[in-house]
Amino acid sequence: MAEKLKIKLSIADRVYPLTIDPLQEEGLRKAAKNIEQLAKKFEQNYAVRDKQDVLAMCALQFASKIEQKGIDQSEGVKEAAERLKALNMLVSSKLGMK
Question: Are 48 and 38 spatial neighbours (Cβ–Cβ below 8 Å)?
Fold first, then answer.
């Protein structure tokens, strides 16, 4: 079993000490960096100063991206299933003609 790693992440002017699996470090650091960048963008573009509001807007942005990907994937799966069904019917009709 791998040793746990202790790191500190800074988000919205607060430091969060975490004990993590070493394989999670890169993802967590990238996520914290993305949150910081988006928070700065919201603060600059919308004159939002309350960190709670900024973080709520960041959470909404990231969550909506995840939800939209799920919606897009399910639509893609539905479209692929319809194409496979049509292809199956075509193959079946051609095999039935011989």
Answer: no
- Provide mean pLDDT across the span 24-51: 93
Mean pLDDT of 15-30: 96
Cα→Cα distances 29→12, 32, 76, Å: 14, 5, 31
DSSP H or E segment with residue 67: helix 51-97
Closest CA to 33 of 61, 15, 62, 9: 9
pLDDT at 97 (0 to 100) = 60
* Nearest to 39, CA basis, from 50, 28, 52, 55: 55
3-state secondary structure of 38: helix
Structure tokens at 48: 């939002």
Cβ atoms within 10 Å of 58's Cβ, excluding its own: 20
pTM of the model: 0.69
